[in-house]
Design brief:
By secondary structure, the protein is an alpha+beta fold. The protein folds into 3 domains: 1-49; 58-90; 97-185, ANL, C-terminal domain (GMP Synthetase, Chain A, domain 3, 2-Layer Sandwich), CATH 3.30.300.30. The chain has helices at residues 2-29, 32-35, 54-62, 66-87, 108-120, 154-171, and strands at residues 97-98, 105-106, 125-135, 139-148, 176-185. The protein has a 3-stranded mixed sheet with strand order 3-4-5. A two-stranded antiparallel ribbon has the order 1-2. It is elongated and about 80 Å long. The model has no long low-confidence stretch (mean pLDDT 78). This is Alkaline shock response membrane anchor protein AmaP.
Length: 194
């Protein structure tokens, strides 16, 4: 859902950008100072010309399809943009996750805090930041950012991290859990003498 929303946003912004670029080029091309420097294939307008004159607009309005098409298109575009704008609003609260026990729930923020505390207790781990994101009602994305103490190889910490990730997946049993672990090392802080 997030990837689809991002792709739609980029596509709409790209189409709007190309449309605005074309409109800007068309308007710039209408200036007489710029019109003299345009390529020969560029359509040139005469002095005082308009995009659609009164006779052409009256002819379009006289046809039976013009008014319903314009009104329907404008209404659909308005509804589409309002829906798109409302879809961008994110509520700050996430719903609690259902646990296997009847009536038991846990908030994703609480689960992330507990997971961070458990990972930080592993030997060789300096600190940890966990993030739990519910995706729909059946998926759960868990992200662990783990900073290792100086001199600790990742191989020494991975078995404990894997065991805690499996424990977290079992705790959120109805949900399908995907865990990502990112390892970083803390810098060797050497004292500087002046």
């Amino acid at each position: 859902m997030v990837w689809t929303r991002g792709a739609v946003n980029r596509a709409v912004l790209g189409v709007l950008g190309v449309g605005l670029l074309g409109a800007g080029l068309w308007l710039v091309g209408g200036d007489l100072g710029v019109a003299a420097r345009l390529p020969s294939w560029w359509p040139a307008d005469g002095t005082g010309s308009v995009l659609m004159d009164r006779a052409g607009l009256a002819r379009l309005r006289g046809t039976g399809w013009w008014t319903p098409v314009v009104m329907t298109t404008a209404s659909l575009l308005t509804v589409l943009f309002v829906y798109w704008a409302l879809a961008q609003i994110h509520s700050g609260r996430t719903r609690p996750l259902a646990l296997p026990s009847p009536g038991a729930t846990v908030h994703p923020h609480t689960l992330a805090g507990a997971l961070s505390a458990r990972v930080a207790q592993l030997p060789g781990v300096a600190r940890c930041r966990a993030r739990v994101l519910p995706r729909g009602g059946t998926r759960l994305d868990v992200g662990l950012r783990v900073w290792l103490e100086p001199g600790t190889p990742p191989d020494a910490v991975l078995p404990g991290l894997t065991a805690l990730a499996a424990e977290a997946e079992a705790a959120a049993a109805p949900c399908i859990t995907r865990t990502r672990i990112r390892l970083s090392s803390t810098s060797h802080r050497t004292p500087h003498v002046r």
